[in-house]
Amino acid sequence: MEQLLLHLRNLGFTEMESKIMVELATKGQASGYEVAKQLGVSRSNVYAALQRLTQQGYVRCGEGEPARYSVLDPEELAAMISGRVQASLAYMESEMPRGGPVSPSFYNVEGDRNVLGALVRQLNLARQEIVVDVWREEASLLRNELEQAERRGVRLLWAFDGGNAATAPYPAWPPLGGELPRSGGRKFSFVIDRCWCMLGMRYEDGTAQAVVTEHPVLVELLLNHFTQEMVLFELEEDMGAELTKRYGERYSRIYSKYVLHDQAEEEPEEPDERAAGQLRSEDAAD
């Protein structure tokens, strides 16, 4: 029930209107007095809301005394709401003023729902290319949007981390001081049409944080990072045994060379196996 009321409010109905519509749908029809009594609210508020809903066409008022009200069938109600929303969206898109150029800015996005929502909207707008660097858990959440983009002819380049969230693919830089960084997260990045990017982290407790920007510097950094990752991946695939034989322990120490001294004293973990290439549905579903 709460979810239904939430979605009705998201569609523009007030809390009172939403409750009245659900009550009428449950009863079939009822008078304003009966609705007010069932909801435990004043009759004046109920009658005012019923008048608005009747004028908008969502509720019908029958003949008789007292008047009895009924809400449209769900299919008819959905069609009416959809038509009005689409008409408003089309008008807004065509008539909304378009100002001058805006300098690229960085925006913080908080919350798992907001982060995924921003990603879904942008993925649906992609026209030429999507560069994805995610863990498989995040890839599965966005599988539908990525597949739709590929069917539209969008070029899809991806790297899916195959390890578990507790193991970093590269040696982690320890903090210079203060509190330790939050652990248990999975980094991800998206670059869409080489002009929009998101860099963020999803945590095991269900929270998420991300930075969104169209600034060319960060776009270039993420694209360069992706390219270097893929080059290293293919080199290790083709020459892994030879690299180990030639460099021995030095090959693993190369990573620790560029990490602060307290981290370098530890034996770095080997990078987790990664997959790269054009998206395939069975890979994204893992």
From TrEMBL:
GO terms for molecular function: DNA binding. PANTHER family: HTH-TYPE TRANSCRIPTIONAL REGULATOR TRMBL2. Keywords: DNA-binding. Gene3D superfamilies: Winged helix-like DNA-binding domain superfamily/Winged helix DNA-binding domain. This is Transcriptional regulator. It comes from Paenibacillus riograndensis. Residues 8-75 form the Transcription regulator TrmB N-terminal domain. Residues 262-286 are annotated as: Disordered.
